[in-house]
Structure formats: structure tokens, C-alpha cells
Amino acid sequence: MAVVKKVPEKIARQVPFCPGCGHGIVVRLIMECVEELGYNDNVIFGKPVGCASLLDNSLDIDIFTGAHGRNGASLTAIKRLKPDTLVISYQGDGDAYNIGFAETMNAAYRNEKFTVVTINNTNFGMTGGQMAWTTMPGQKTTTSVNGRDVELSGLPIKMPEMIATSFDTAYVARGALFTPAEINKTKGYIKKALQAQSDGIGHSMVEVLSPCPTNWHMSPLEAQERIIKELVPYYPLGELKNKGGK
Ligand SMILES: Cc1ncc(C[n+]2csc(CCOP(=O)(O)OP(=O)(O)O)c2C)c(N)n1
Ligand code: SF4
Ligand SMILES: [Mg+2]
Hints:
- With 246 residues, this protein is an alpha/beta fold.
- Helix content is 37%, strand content 16%.
- The mean pLDDT is 96.
- Bound molecules: thiamine diphosphate, iron/sulfur cluster and magnesium ion.
- Thiamine diphosphate (TPP) binds next to helix 3.
């Protein structure tokens, strides 16, 4: 018999995202992991600028909102001042990779002992679907109306690969949201990343390939199929680094 897991207590109200959006799923996975790891009030959720900024009223935990892209710097300070607190930086791809590139890379470079979870939905979602560094070749966005031209703007960025191979980080993985099995694997990656932080091993990061049906102009089902057919072949799934070995 299938076991339906209870919504974590800290998700106090409904999350405010579009139908079929991945943000709500990932936030739930994070809060399930937080609960399972035994953290109750000793958690700080670093919220970005982007669609996830709408989360304020949904979570009953301490939330910090950084300026656009700057959570890598702000949460460094918070974690250093409160080393026993589980610090989670939840960020969009535009926030963490484009606007916050320097802060994200510097936090990883210094091996700051907090966890970054990034939502790669291949665009700047909240502001209407502009091209990001994660946008796929040929993808039409409001700022690449004829499709992304890699001759002009380069290839989509693979931040987890850069962070896993360049710096002395503890845990790096990429998951995706399509089948329940993949969603469960993604939860496993998030849990290991949080465990690496809890064990004091070092910086941890999980990227999640996530649907944005609204700006992709697709149904939720078509958006999931796009992830499987178009995104996964370019952005491979799995663990890139697991220093703690758990
Ligand atoms: C300094 C600054 N520049 C630009 C903006 C406008 N802005 C708000 S949300 C956003 C896009 C965020 O995209 P992403 O991080 O990918 O998150 P998503 O909405 O896709 O989840 C931008 C550019 C801002 N709020 N502050
Ligand atoms: S615009 Fe995209 S990322 Fe933002 S809430 Fe809607 S589906 Fe989600
Ligand atoms: Mg985005």
C-alpha cells in the first residue's frame, strides 16, 4: 500500500506558485529533509529574489531574504556567526548563476559550510522569462525571441560541474523533477547535502532541473517531457562529489 507522507509542519500555508511549477516540490523536499534530520527551529532558509521570494507566508521558519544574487555572501556571515544553525540558500538560476555568480563561486571557493539548492528552470522566471546562462541553445525567451544563439552568448553554464571540480567542496549533485522516482532521488541528494553541512564537512550544493510551464508556454506535462528530452542530455543527473561518503 502506498504511504502518503504528511506535509512537514513547517509548511504552514499553501505555496504560491503557478500550476506545474517545480518550486513548490523542491521546497517541500527540503522541509521534509529538515524534519527528518531532526532540525526544528535551528534553521535559516535563505530566500532569493525571484519567484521563490513569494514564499514568505508559507513557511514557519526563520527566513532571510538577500538582495538579488547575494545570498552567497549574506549567508556566509550568518553561518559563521551561527555555526550550529542549518543554513539553506534556496536560489533561482538567474539569482545564483547570473547575477550572483561571484557570490556563489566565492562561497564555494571558500568552502563555506552551508547548503545551496538552485532551481534551474532555464530562465529568469519571475520577471517574465528572460534568457539566463542556463537557457538552452535555440530556446526562445523574451530576450532571445529567435532562440538562444550560442555564437553570441556562449553555451549554457554547468555550475555544479565547476563547483565540484574547482573547489574543495563537500557535496555536489544535480537532480530533476519528472517521475516520482527522480523526485525521490532529488530528495536523497538534498538530504545528503544537508547532512554534509550538519556533519561540518563543508560546502554543499544541489541543482534541480525544474519546470516553468508559464514561461515555457507549455502544459505541466509538456514541461516535464521537455526536462527529460532536452535538459537531462545536456545537464547530466547524479552525484558529482561526495566527500563524506554517506
Ligand atoms: C538588483 C536587481 N536586479 C534585477 C531585479 C529584477 N528581478 C527580480 S526576479 C528576477 C529574476 C529571477 O530569476 P531566477 O533567479 O532564475 O528565479 P526564478 O524566478 O526563475 O525562480 C529579476 C531579474 C531585482 N529584483 N534586483
Ligand atoms: S513563472 Fe515559472 S518559476 Fe515562476 S512560479 Fe510560475 S512556473 Fe514557477
Ligand atoms: Mg530561473
